[in-house]
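**Fold in tokens:**
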Amino acid sequence: MNPDRQAMIAGWKSPRKADRDITAPRHDPSNRISKPARQPQSRSTPASANTSSTGKYLTQDEQSEQFVADEDKFVLKQAKKKADIRVRERRAKPIDYLAFNLRFIDSDRDIFDDDEKDMEIHIPAPEAVLNMLNVAQLKELEEDIKSYHTLEANRMNKDYWTALLALCVDRQQKLKPQGPEGRAVTSVASDVDKILSPKTLEQLEALEIQIKAKLQSDGPIDTDYWGELLKSLLVYKARAKLQKVCQTIKAARVELLKASNPEKAKALEESNTKPVATPKSAQNSAKPASRPVAPTPASQSSAPPPGTARFASTENEDFSQATKALYDREVARGVGEGEEIFAAEEAVPSGTKPLWAEKYRPRKPRYFNRVQMGYEWNKYNQTHYDHDNPPPKVVQGYRFNIFYPDLIDKTKAPTYKIIREHGRRRGESFAPAGKEDTCLIRFIAGPPYEDIAFRIVDREWDYSAKKERGFKSSFDKGILQLHFQFKKIYYRK
């Protein structure tokens, strides 16, 4: 080899280690590839548990549990969506109002399910919804609440349904006829109310522990009294928990409203959201009071549902507690599909003053009426419209519900009659082409109620009762119900 080249190579070489083989690969500590040492597996932990803990593999039981949880979550989400739709379309059931209340604090909700107009919808307080229902309706509501309670995983939401379930059961017990034991318990009800009503949730929980300890002790005590006190305490505790959740809902609504409607947010923040208490007369009996009760000022009544503000526009309207109970119960039924709230009230044709006006204070009956709307597929509409582009809706019928709970003579049921102006008779038409004749329907009752009239479409009624919403004319438990649809005219092709 060239001596110069050999010298150059010798100068570039790093110092040779004594134990290094000259033919072995060159050592580079900064670029070493090595296999990590294997960790010894604990004998107490099976391999399947390790794979499950990493989330890569699940056992068959864990897969089944995960499937059930996902299925429950899907069913709950769909139930909430259906409740929202029914509330927005004003055909909600009682359970829908209770579910809609939670939407403002539900962390599991999808924001794409929200609607801008949801903040404008008036929803009755949860306890007020319970107070509107009878025993059969409460039983149905109890089953609906149990379904939500079973599916719900959110802790605050579950507390909400737990409290409502306890109050629903308690409300049913109060509406049922009382036996000897129930009448005996009623004697201490006022004492129980004085003890429990002013206490907070924390105070009720502390008192619950004391009462349970007292009942478990061997000392001589009045078991009936303390047992009833504990039973009532659980109801007050549920009411306090419900009130706590409602306050959270209210605070969330206020925050959402501050951006869109600051004035309404301030009004809501200053409003009192305490649940409507059940009158003692309603707690002890399912029947409404038959005596006239002093009217409640309109300023003290709760805000009506959307579209019903016109119902309370006159000073002489009936605001008795019995009427309010009937009215609230009918409002809770909601508005069905294809229905709208109907309040086309007209002035009653002037006449002589009733003879009983000096003896009884005349009052105007309250009502909650619905008009049934739908499409009419006559020959013209079939030619110019289709199901994707339907014609304008027309009136197909009415459902009148007028409340007369305080009639003096309950043996005489209220009646109605049809009034056609300008001498027009039944079957005649003075309306121009494309228009429909209208007439007045006047409802007549005895003292202390004044007559009331509405303007309706003048068409032939269908008196068939075979349909789901067929003809109905009845007076029961203080409610005059007149439901009818118009006869349909079928056109041959």
Observations:
- The longest helix spans residues 223-260.
